[in-house]
Amino acid sequence: MAFGTVTILGGRGMLAGDLRQVAARRGVKVKIHDLPEFDITDDWQLKKVVAESEVIVNCAAYTNVEKAESDPEMADQVNGFSVGRLGEYAAGYDVPVLHISTDFVFDGAQETPYCETDEPNPINVYGSSKLLGERLLVKSGCEYCIIRVQWTYGKGGVNFITKILKAAKTQESLQVVDDQVGAPTHTAEVARVICDFLERDVFPVGLYHFAAEGSVSRYEMTRFLFETLGIKTPVTPCKTADFKTAARRPLNSHFCCEKIETLLGRKIPTWQNMLKTYLETL
Ligand SMILES: NC(=O)c1ccc[n+]([C@@H]2O[C@H](COP(=O)([O-])OP(=O)(O)OC[C@H]3O[C@@H](n4cnc5c(N)ncnc54)[C@H](OP(=O)(O)O)[C@@H]3O)[C@@H](O)[C@H]2O)c1
Predict the structure, then answer these.
(1) Residue 126 bears catalytic tag
(2) Rounded to an integer, what distance in angstroms lies between the CA atom of residue 19 and that of residue 30?
(3) What pLDDT, on a 0 to 100 scale, did the predictor assign at position 1?
(4) pLDDT tens sequence across 130-155
(5) Which one of 59, 62, 185 would you pick to mutate in the ligand 1 pocket, going by the greatest count of ligand atoms within 8 A of its CB?
């Protein structure tokens, strides 16, 4: 590893949990900072942490997409302005920042997979707060790397898989949308990529999209999940418009990952392989 110690902000979250494990396997020391003792919106705390860091991976985020709609100031503070200030302090102390972002910066109206050069156009508060963070980080002048991920699942987090498995136990039948398309991605694979990036001789400055290979609708993914686990709860397809939610969801979340595959020099596993590997660990 090019760095002896990695500082993880939001270090107790779902992605950070896998990152801690992968980093430990590769012999890297990790320092974690998270709520309640560390608040990224507290400038004094943030500056102190940056000053004491070699490299920072920012996994801290306001991730409650529904709640963000009625709490836009806090979403902007955590996902937007704090990330900008993180960049400013990092520029001052010469600390590289690897920041995690999301497919929700896009409106999902495009019919082809989203590349890094496609224009963002968020359609909910969470997405616009994450885009604000990306833009302020780029503007800060620090050495930055942004990895956008999508439809992530992992141990120790609430995600689509945990919700659907819980619903399968408590409901007689399920309806799942078949018009939202993306690539379910295991956080252990994201963690592997982050560590690969940190091991490079030259910090990979820029914006990258990362997701499992292939794409699938939420409905098809649920069918795959139930078939693999032998769950018999009936599932029928429905449309996003049938569900009343506070936040609008992008219909197409599918990423083009050619840029990151070229840098890594390897193919990303398919969503089916990633998901099977994850399910074997449950
Ligand atoms: N999950 C997905 O499907 C998905 C998809 C695309 C992108 N992402 C991105 O992936 C990254 C990692 O998210 P995740 O999935 O691991 O979510 P997560 O489990 O919610 O992790 C976020 C962490 O940040 C912490 N946090 C929240 N507010 C904070 C604050 N003010 N100061 C310090 N820490 C704070 C959270 O603490 P609390 O739990 O105490 O609030 C949590 O530990 C985020 O940038 C997210 O936007 C996630």
Answers:
(1) yes
(2) 9
(3) 58
(4) 999 999 999 999 999 999 999 999 99
(5) 59
C-beta of 184 in contact with ligand 1 (< 6 A)? no
- Per-residue model confidence as pLDDT tens digits over 46-62: 999 999 999 999 999 99
CB 133 near ligand 1, within 6 Å: no
Tell which atom from ligand 1 comes closest to the C-alpha of 78.
31
Assess whether the C-beta atom of 10 lies below 6 angstroms from ligand 1. yes
CATH number of 5-159+183-215+254-271: 3.40.50.720
pLDDT at residue 156 is higher than 90: no
